[in-house]
From TrEMBL:
Belongs to the Mediator complex subunit 30 family. GO terms for cellular component: mediator complex. Keywords: Activator, Nucleus, Transcription, Transcription regulation. This is Mediator of RNA polymerase II transcription subunit 30.
Length: 93
């Protein structure tokens, strides 16, 4: 019992040690006001995002046909297996 109580009492210390480096931000600072300048992404970040998005679309475009073919093959195999199982059961009875 004392071993588990030691562990339980040690958790607050672990949590406090892990959040020491975190900075506290108030809720009010997270709400944008009219007078404050807008925080926008830099042009390089937007350009990088567009580039990554285009690359993602190209990869999806190249992967869709083979995936579709594999699905068809799996469906056909499933149907054939079902037919074989049905024939074997009919033969036994």
């Amino acid at each position: 019992m004392s071993f588990t109580m030691k562990n339980i009492l040690g958790y607050p210390r672990v949590v406090l040690n892990s959040i020491k480096g975190m900075q506290y931000t108030t809720v009010e600072s997270l709400i944008p006001l009219k007078d404050e300048p807008e925080h926008r992404l830099e042009a390089t970040q937007c350009e990088r995002y567009r580039k990554d998005l285009q690359e993602n679309r190209e990869l999806i475009g190249t992967l869709k046909p083979p995936v579709r073919q594999l699905r068809d093959i799996i469906d056909r195999t499933r149907i054939i297996m079902w037919d074989i199982k049905t024939m074997l059961r009919m033969r036994k009875s």
